[in-house]
Amino acid sequence: MTPYGEIVKDMEYFREIGKPYKYQRSGSSMVAYINGVKHFTSTVNQGRADIGLPSKQLYFIMKVKRYIAKNDLVNIIQPNYKKRTNIKFICLNNDIEVGEVFSSPYSIDINAAYWESAFKAGWISYELYQEGKGVDKRIRLASLGSYAKRIYNYEYSGRGEERMTGITEPAFPHVFFNQANTVFRLMEKCRREIKEEFLFYWTDGIYVKNKQAAKKCVDILNKLGYESKTEKLIRVTRLPNGFETKEKKLIKDGKYKIKEKLYRSNFE
Predict the structure, then answer these.
(1) Cα distance from N-terminal residue to C-terminal residue, the chain
(2) Alpha-carbon distance 134 to 132, whole Å?
(3) Which of 32, 143, 163, 218 has its CB 3.0 to 4.6 Å from that of 23, i.e. a possible disulfide?
(4) Is the confidence at residue 67, as pLDDT, over 70?
(5) 223 CB-near residues (< 8 Å, 6+ apart)
(6) In the structure, what pLDDT confidence band is assigned to residue 43 with cuts at 50, 70 and 90?
(7) DSSP characters over the chain
(8) 230 with 218: CB under 8 angstroms?
(9) Among 121, 105, 91, which Cα is nearest to 204's?
(10) Residue 242 has pLDDT above 70, yes or no
C-alpha cells in the first residue's frame, strides 16, 4: 500500500506538468489511478498522512470482504431495519437540566460490539471472528463500514482544475447498518430498563447515574450474549448540547491520569 502523502505529492506533480489522473475517496481510504498504475492508500490506522495502512491489516479487511462475497451473504442476510434514519447512534436524557452534575456515574461499553453482532448474525465465520479479536478496533470497523460508505470520484483531465465527477452510492450498506441497528436496539433496551437513571448513550457505550443502573445494563447484555466493561467515572456534567465526562484512566505502574471527554450532539 502506498503512503497517502506520497500519492498527494504525485498528484500535485501531475497537475504541475498537465498530466491526467483520477482517484476515488471513501472515508479515510483512497484508490488513485496515476500514470497507468492503481494505488491503494489509507490513513485509518495511523492518523498520519505519510504512512499507509499496513499490508497485514489491509489483508484482513479484504479477507472479510472475500468471505462475505464468496458466501453471497449480502443477498442471503437481509436488512434488519426499515430506514437507516431510524437507527440512532446518540441519545441524551433530555429531562436532565443544563448544569446538573452526577458524582457517582458509571459507563458500560460493549466489547467489540459491531464485530460481535456481525458474528451472531452470520456475517463472519468463527475463524474470522477469533482472528478479528486480535485486530485493532478501527480495522474491524473498516472491514464492515466500507460497505456503507459513499465513493466520491475525482479526476484531473490535464487542463483546468481537478473536479468531482460523481458519487457512487453503496450497494450493500446493510452489511454495516445491520450491526449498527443491533447495537442501537441493545442501547435502547438498557435505556428503557433503567428509565430515569439513564444519562446518555454514544454508539456502543451507555452512561448511567449509579451502580445499580450499571448492573441492570450489564445483566441485559449478558443475557443477550454480549460482554462489556464497566467503569466508575469521577463525574458527568450536563451541557447545553451534550455531556462532559471526567474519568480516571490507568496509564501504567499504578499511575493514573484524569481525562475529560465531551459528547456533543447537534440534534438539540
Answers:
(1) 42
(2) 5
(3) 32
(4) yes
(5) none
(6) low
(7) ---HHHHHHHHHHHHHHT--EEEEEETTEEEEEETTEEEEEE-TTT--TT----HHHHHHHHHHHHHHHHTTHHHHSPPS-S-GGG--SEEE-TTSPTT-EESS-EEEEETTHHHHHHHHHTSS-HHHHHHHHTS-HHHHHHHHHGGG--EEEEEE-SSS--EEEEEEPPS-THHHHHHHHHHHHHHHHHHHHHGGGEEEEETTEEEESSHHHHHHHHHHHHHTT--EEEEE-SEEEEETTEEEEEEEEE-STT-EEEEEEEEE-S--
(8) yes
(9) 91
(10) yes
Cα(75)–Cα(66) distance, integer angstroms: 14
Closest among 158, 3, 161, 148 to 89, alpha carbons compared: 148
User: How does pLDDT run across 135-166, given as a tens digit for each residue?
Assistant: 999 899 999 999 999 999 999 999 999 999 99
Asked whether the predicted pLDDT for residue 246 surpasses 50, the reply is: yes
Q: Is residue 110 within 8 Å of 220, Cβ to Cβ?
A: no
Q: 41 or 17, which is more confident?
A: 17
> pLDDT band at 4, cuts 50/70/90?
confident
Residue 22, class by beta-carbon neighbours within 10 Å (0-12 exposed, 13-18 middle, 19+ buried)?
middle
Q: How far apart are CA 90 and CA 39, in angstroms?
A: 36
Q: Cα–Cα distance between 230 and 109 in angstroms, integer? A: 7
Residue 94 is which amino acid? N
